């Protein structure tokens, strides 16, 4: 990896105003601490739940608008931004748009890819247009929730949220309405999807400095029978990750092809994680994360570590790649 033109100041942005605020704080702290100090100086910017920006622990203004002006001044003094903000008002292209307007290179996908991938309904449309299966589902809003009917086990989820917030496995008709209400508390649109019986397998794609793409080893998530990979199991240390996933050559190729196809179709950049179900009928796409969890113990860094790319080298690839990307 060439480092002759390495940027020195990297604005690592964490927090945000979504339900993934705390997860994002963890990602940003890990990224800032792990950046190679011989190449980069990490500048910590945090967005509070109230929308105010902070430099370190110091507020940059009394209001969100005033603090944003201060944040843009800080960003202008940096070489690259690393938006480690997950979920709405961040991963959905919001921060990519801010960086583009400010003329600052950033790690990750642009507004279009972030917005498309965050919207699970749109993601399904893109996938299906490329022959990639998704779970049959119905879009529900507050005005149509009363007409939703249970016709078997379903998964209820907000259209635009992450970390399994608001996700419920519904196995009884009486539980459908409460599950929809829980999801509607986080988003004004909800997906009610048929439960897919299959193995949960994640695949990550990394766009390297030289423009090539690396598909990391697949990771399988083994959940207890009759459950889904929910918010608690993601962060309480109980998740059972199998890396590399036990797959045959056909399954590995199908997963890699589907992940690369979606990476290109959505217009992703940097790194993205693609969550699939592996079934006897083939792979089924569950969702796409354009800014996945980025602590050293998160799924994507684990996958690339298994492929021989350390956490620090992964971050360097992302920052250096962003620095030389013309958008």
UniProtKB/TrEMBL annotation:
EC number of this enzyme: 6.3.2.4
Pfam families recorded: Dala_Dala_lig_C (PF07478), Dala_Dala_lig_N (PF01820)
Where does this protein hold Mg(2+) 2?
287, 289
The cellular component terms of Gene Ontology attached to this UniProt record, alphabetical and capped at eight, are:
cytosol
Cofactor binding note of this UniProt entry: Binds 2 magnesium or manganese ions per subunit.
Which BP terms does GO give this entry? cell wall organization; peptidoglycan biosynthetic process; regulation of cell shape
Residues that bind Mg(2+) 1: 275, 287
Q: Where is the ATP-grasp domain?
A: 124-320
**Where is the protein localized?**
Cytoplasm
Pathway recorded for this protein: Cell wall biogenesis; peptidoglycan biosynthesis
Going by the UniProt record, its keywords in alphabetical order are: ATP-binding, Cell shape, Cell wall biogenesis/degradation, Cytoplasm, Ligase, Magnesium, Manganese, Metal-binding, Nucleotide-binding, Peptidoglycan synthesis
Looking at its record, which EC class is this enzyme?
ligase
Subcellular location, principal:
cytoplasm
Q: Where is the active site?
A: 20, 163, 298
Keyword Protein biosynthesis applies: no
Q: Which reaction does it catalyse?
A: 2 D-alanine + ATP = D-alanyl-D-alanine + ADP + phosphate + H(+)
Q: Which cofactor does it need?
A: Mg(2+); Mn(2+)
- What's this protein's function? Cell wall formation.
Q: Which NCBIfam families match?
A: D_ala_D_alaTIGR
Its family remark reads:
Belongs to the D-alanine--D-alanine ligase family.
Name this polypeptide is given: D-alanine--D-alanine ligase
Organism, scientific name: Aeromicrobium endophyticum
């Amino acid at each position: 990896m060439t480092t002759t033109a390495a940027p020195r100041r990297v604005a690592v942005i964490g927090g945000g105003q979504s339900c993934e605020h705390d997860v994002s704080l963890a990602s940003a702290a890990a990224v800032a601490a792990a950046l190679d100090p011989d190449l980069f100086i990490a500048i910590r910017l945090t967005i509070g739940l109230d929308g105010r920006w902070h430099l370190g622990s110091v507020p940059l203004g009394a209001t969100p608008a005033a603090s944003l002006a201060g944040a843009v001044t800080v960003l202008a003094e940096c070489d690259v931004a690393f938006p480690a903000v997950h979920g709405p008002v961040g991963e959905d292209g919001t921060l990519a748009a801010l960086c583009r307007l400010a003329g600052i290179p950033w790690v990750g996908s642009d507004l279009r890819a972030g917005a498309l991938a965050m919207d699970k309904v749109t993601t399904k449309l893109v996938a299906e247009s490329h022959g990639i299966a998704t779970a049959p589902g119905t879009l529900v809003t507050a005005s149509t929730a009363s007409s939703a009917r249970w016709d078997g086990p379903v998964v209820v989820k907000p259209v635009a949220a992450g970390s399994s917030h608001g996700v419920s496995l519904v196995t009884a008709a009486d539980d459908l309405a409460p599950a929809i209400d829980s999801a509607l508390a986080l988003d004004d649109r909800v997906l009610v999807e048929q439960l897919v019986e299959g193995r949960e397998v994640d695949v990550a794609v990394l766009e390297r400095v030289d423009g090539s793409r690396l598909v990391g080893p697949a990771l399988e998530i083994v959940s207890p029978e009759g459950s889904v990979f929910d918010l608690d199991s993601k962060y309480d240390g109980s998740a059972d990750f199998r890396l590399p996933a036990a797959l045959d050559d056909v399954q590995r190729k199908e997963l890699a092809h589907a992940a690369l196809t979606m990476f290109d179709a959505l217009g992703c950049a940097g790194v993205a994680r693609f969550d699939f179900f592996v079934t006897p009928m083939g792979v089924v796409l569950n969702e796409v994360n354009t800014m996945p969890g980025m602590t050293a113990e998160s799924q994507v860094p684990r996958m690339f570590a298994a492929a021989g790319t350390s956490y620090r080298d992964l971050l360097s690839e992302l920052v250096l790649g962003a620095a030389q990307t013309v958008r």
